[in-house]
Amino acid sequence: MTEMTDSITSTAVPALDKAVAILDYLSEHGFATFTELSALPNLPKSTLSRQLASLIEHGLVRMQGDKYALGLRLYQYGQSAYTHYDLKDAARPALAKLRDATGLTCHLGILEGMQPVYLDKLESPYTVIVRSYVGKRLPVHSTALGKVLLAFSATDLRDSIIKARLPFERFTEHTLTSIKDLYAELDQVRLQGFACDEEEDNEGVVCYAVPVFAAPSQIAAAISVTGVKAQYKDLPFLELLDKLQACARQISATLQ
Q1: Of 53, 106, 126, 172, whose CB has the highest number of CB atoms within 10 Å?
Q2: Helix (H, G, I), strand (E, B) or coil at 193
Q3: pTM reported for the whole predicted model
Q4: Domains and CATH numbers, the chain
């Protein structure tokens, strides 16, 4: 599941901030009416109307009936960024071996600004559907990959990200929603070197993640394995963790 904020990030270019807020909203909800978009903070209807007209003119937003949606030009940008991102290229061979060795869906994720994002995904060879996609933004409190990226980030960045995500959304009965409990878990993640999500983000789905380093103590990304609980029954945890950490070391070696 994806958690997004309805607040508008403030930079030196307010008009761009508002445009990004509109695109973020459409990315999360798929389609939205003018009335729904006008509920975004700091976006009066006159400003929103001009923003939407410009975004449509540039092909970043399109109309479908009386609703707005993301334009195909964003898909072109995304494909270009995806194709040319060096980290993805460096990680894919090792990630493919991990997928083949475990039979689980494998992800590569990074912090993009203050949000964990999937940079790559390799599907499980089995007929198991994991609802994720490249470019998907992730909650930080309910996903293994998000927890790893938080745990190994600089303290100031970690605290800012957590503050921006409050209050934590509950996705399942297992979701951790206490900030105190999250900090305790992040301490444990740093100590043990991995994070887990046991049905915290989606019922029946279990995920483990470890960090990838560009230099000692400098996290560059995280990788994870994801599957339904039944997929783990014939794969001992310590063996799985060893494969996951070996993959992370292999990717880290290409970045250092």
Answers
A1: 106
A2: coil
A3: 0.69
A4: 14-77 (1.10.10.10), 85-255 (3.30.450.40)
